[in-house]
Amino acid sequence: MIVCVCHSVSDSSIRTAAAMGASHEDIVRSTGAGSSCGCCADFVASIVEKEGGCRGSPCPGCPRKPTGH
Hints:
The protein is mainly alpha-helical. It has three helices and two strands, in the order ββααα. It has one domain (2-51): Arc Repressor Mutant, subunit A (Orthogonal Bundle), CATH 1.10.10.1100.
């Protein structure tokens, strides 16, 4: 489903990014979701909060472990 019509961003792309450890700010910066008209901003934030990766240090071998760090 398209969450952000302004930037054609789907809920699955937001969920995937959040599960991989992207913060709300990272997702807004990379997709533009929630940055134009603002209608989807609260929904984007709720997806990130619900689907967000682990807090703190991930378990060894965790598929949600952020890469590149």
